[in-house]
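Researcher: I need the complex structure. Ligand is pyridoxal-5'-phosphate. Inputs:
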Amino acid sequence: MTHSDNGFFDNFGGKYVAEVLRRPLDELEIAFSEAIKDPDFIKELETIQRDYIGRETPLLFAETATKLLGGAQIYIKLEGLANTGAHKINNAIGQCLLAKRMGKKRIIAETGAGQHGVATAAACAKLGLDCTVYMGEVDVRRQQPNVAAMELYGAKVHPVTSGSRTLKDAVNEAMRDWAANPDSTHYVLGSALGPAPFPDMVREFQSVIGREVERQAAERNLDVAAMIACVGGGSNSIGFFAPFIDKANPRLIGVEAGGIGDGIGQNAVRMSGKAARDGIMHGYKSRFLLDEDGQTLQTRSISAGLDYCGIGPQLATLGRQGRVEFTYARDDEALNAVKFFARNEGVLFAMESAHAGAEAIKLAPTLPKDKAIIVNMSGRGDKDVFITCPVFRRDEWLAFLHAEIDRLESDTDIHNAKIMGETK
Ligand SMILES: *Cc1c(COP(=O)(O)O)cnc(C)c1O
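Model: Output:
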């Protein structure tokens, strides 16, 4: 099942939206299917992927890690080397180019932790589009570094004050805006979910990862036994898996956030556990962590990007069919994977991607040396200093934060403010 049948992947997917959103979704579907068949659009996309995103991203042989683990050869797709530090820019650039082609001048997006907001803000800056990012007020407060980056890129960050003031409220607000302004505005959704055509479209824009891997693996004559990716909403994994879905091999393994335990509210495991149910939310049918009243359950993960109650409909179907195997990694296993690949390969995984790294550490020793496994490092870990430092060096980090506060409250701050005032 490489793409949807009229928006559905078997039972999952669809377009469960209010009447006012049907027309913009239908128009988007037509514009997208025309664009990806247009050689001019593809050429423009490939040029910006090369010059702005920095594609192709390397496929690294993790030689020391392989030796230490003593089994299959481990390869890492360094997607975190993409401009802005993660795979999300592939989708943001693709959708913004499409919006331009459709004559839209204004972009809106939802964001939770802020990674998708940053990618969309950067894409809009590059392509000269007006950008508004909806973000729950609670997240705005927690994720100031990303809010600052979005504003530097020229985006307006709109704090959402309804409901729990987090991601799902931001999605609702973005959909409301789109319904009110369908002619001027395109809504850039951040993962391979939501109403059709978003799951197909996001997969297509992310499948550049998988197509590069297919070529890179063939060039080196790798005998690939398994491909491993972390799964939040599912965009990096479905893009990485895309060219292989219709083949019997390699094994495709999705790694969810195991959090701190099996209990309700302790993880974000939708597929490999028993807690999730079929449901409809945010315009699509899939597997969700819901209570008996159909309300979303709390989720928990050390990685903000995997901390989400739903999963893209195509992955839900591929999981049910057995083509994609699902497992999970706990927070501490992901932290250990960050350390392991940093020390042994000089590669700093994002916390999300480290869940895939943790599975590679478990799987490699069980496979013969002439086989390869490929891990998608969906992002790099620079963004995670506020997560990793309090764990790895708590006291030093606390002292650093205190010193920073002192510095800001001292005259230096006034001095800096003056410099900015003078250069305005
Ligand atoms: C957002 C994010 C994820 C999770 O999103 P998917 O849509 O499942 O890919 C994974 N890794 C990184 C680095 C992210 O920023």
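Model: Summary of the prediction. The mean pLDDT is 96.
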